[in-house]
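## retry 2 of 3
previous attempt timed out at serialization; input unchanged, resubmitting
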Amino acid sequence: MKLALELLELRGGTRILETGCARQVDNWEGDGMSSLVWGEWAATHNGHLTTVDADPGNLDTCRTLTAEWADAITYVHDDSVHYMGTHTEPVDLLYLDSYDYPLIDLLEFVGGYQDFAVNVAKLHALGDDYIVEHHWDVIASSQKHAEREMLAALPLLHDRSLVLIDDANLPGGGKARLARTVLADAGWTCLLDAYQTLWEKP
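## retry succeeded, writing output
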């Protein structure tokens, strides 16, 4: 996130669009608190954050958590794919983090949530291709949703836009596996591929 914001500032960008908002208090190690990071940045850099979530309860929590920067935030209750398909304002930084990736469900195939790190390593050792082939029914919904988001967002992006996708290096390709292909096919370049994957258009 830090690199994305540094690049956004260097490029003169101000408009952030986030799918999936912060939904729990003090959950920095879990779902993350991205709305707070983006909201504070927008408020202090004359920018604007639009955060989209299909769950009104999540948005209520997000409003509370980000109340300090609310003047720089628009909260949208909508399906993210639908919203981006009807949205026209250009986006300088797109952050995709809706629809949880089912890591917990995948862990059931290698011993469950106990010994978390060990069992995640077991999943990684199986390889992404194996997981896609044998457990597509588990991961399909999350990956295909991110793919649909990416396809819907492409018309909103410009030559200096950035795309950041969360949960990217999880077993089976993470949330970003199919969205990466959309970006690569559209001529985008990956700048960072770790837990989050960051892309730009050369």
